[in-house]
Each structure stands twice: as structure tokens, then as C-alpha cells.
Specification:
With 209 residues, the chain is of the alpha/beta class. It has a single domain (5-204), classed as Rossmann fold (3-Layer(aba) Sandwich). Helix content is 56%, strand content 13%. Helix 2 (45-52) packs across helix 3 and helix 4 (94-103) crosses helix 7.
Length: 209
Amino acid sequence: MTTGFFLAIDGPSGIGKSTVTAALARQLAGAGLPVLATKEPTASPLGSLTRFGTDDYQGITLACLVAADRYQHLEMEIRPALATGTVVVCDRYVASSLVLQGLDGVPADFLWTLAAAADRPDLTVILTGDPVRSRERAAQRGLYSRFHRGGPEAGVAEADAYRAIAADLEAAGYAVLCHDIGTQTGEEVAALLAASVLSRLEGTRTAPP
């Protein structure tokens, strides 16, 4: 049975996840791989409710909506693509839920339970960088979610939470790559990630049975 490669890109608001996701998809496609670039929350009615409804829904209610959108996403888009050998690059996944819903006061054990049946990515990338700069970019893009608000102080708390969650994911058996973008462009970050994906794919092809 043909299987693809599932990569999730997570990190603080405004860090550049969407830019890196698009650039990585282009670079992998340029290397001759079938690629699906996708995101969470999705563009479905359920995903739009979670994306733009953060002022209406909070805590466990919002966490359950996010999880429901994820499981529909897996069933309708991610798993079918992987089954055809496609590389799936997802902008936000489990790490974002653990961080954002955790900051929203949802107990960690409940969030891990919600994520228990979600497919584990072959690689989870946590992008990090200057939280002040990230919050400025998020503000320029538009503060449609209450998780994007709060300024630099909230940005520092979010960045710290992602670093902690990266360690928790590794302890839970996830393959995690943390990358501080520094002054790199989205294309430069994507090039590094593309090399990692291609190396991992080559390793699976050449590994002995």
C-alpha cells in the first residue's frame, strides 16, 4: 500500500507558518513530489466557525470544535491524500491545539484525550522566533482571533508554551523538529525543511525490509 508523508507546521501567531507552508509545498512539488498544502482550522463551515468564532466560543467548547474540525479534515482530506502517496503539509495541527486551548484554560489531559485518535505526523515542525516581531506581523495580517491579541506580552507567553509543548510531544513519541527562523525568509526556512523531508523519504525508501 502506498503511503505519503505527513508534515505539520506549528508555531506562534505571526511566525510565518502560512508563508513557509506555501513555499515548502512549491519546493517539494518542484522536486517532483505530489503535494497537498492544507491548514487548520479548515475552510469548511466547521473550520470557519472555529477560526472566526473565538470571541463566541471558549475553553472546552472551542477545544471540542477544533477537534471535530480536525477529525473531519483527516477523514475527508488528509488520509485520502496520504493513501495515494502524497506529501501533506498542514499549517497548524495538534501542537497548536495543545498550546492555544491550554492558554484558554483547558486541562492538558483533556486536550491529549481529544488528540488521541488523530494521526501522528511523520514530522512536526515547531517554528520559533522573536515574539515581538511575530505579534507585529499578526497585527498587520488582521486580528480576527482573540488568540492573536494581547501584544508582546501575550506573544512571549505563546512562544514559551510552544517550546514546552515541543518537549511534551517528543516525550509522547512524536517526531519533532524545532527551528528558530531568526532573520531567514520563508523560502530559506522552506528549503531547510524540504531537505529534511527529502532525506527522511529517502531513508524510508532505502531502509531494509
